[in-house]
Fold:
Amino acid sequence: ELSRYRDRYSEVSGNVLPEEYLRQALVYQFYKGYRPVAGFILNTVNWSPLRYFSYLDETIRQTLLFEEDLIESDFLEITSNWKSSELSSSESHTYYSVMLKQAQRQARLYGKKLLLGGSVIKPIKKLQQRLMTRIIYHGPIDPQRRNTVKEKQPLLKLYIVPVAQVRWRAAISLWKRYLGLVFRTILAKKKI
Structure:
């Protein structure tokens, strides 16, 4: 099943996941029938090096941790998220809910204080930042690692959120999203 995850993730994102990384991290894959339709990975330095930090030059990684007063062992990384466009709105909501619940559960189980996320894809950055509001890095990927992502000149954005704030941040994000939908619906009805 790990090879199915790797292949489907690569197909959807264009990015490469090493087999060894998949064997050491927690891989979650969702199915419709026998077809994989979504997935995500949770990881800590206890299992495998953090994938997002592997995109940084070692000097930048060390400086980032020092300047931001962060300890790498405090992170639970949510990474390699993907979902098929065939998922309905309610199925997508379920997918994101399961992802956040599992991230919180694993973080508490392993004593992790912070969730780490990131992306090189602009729409995904915007979506993830609704939950993870503290940006800790926004810059280029180490040139030696550029061949592992499909973007030609990728700017990686990394962000974090304290595990204790995940539910609150998710609730605020949903509230803002649905409040906007309600407001647009009301305005549209007034125009009719």
In short: The first helix runs from residue 2 to 13.
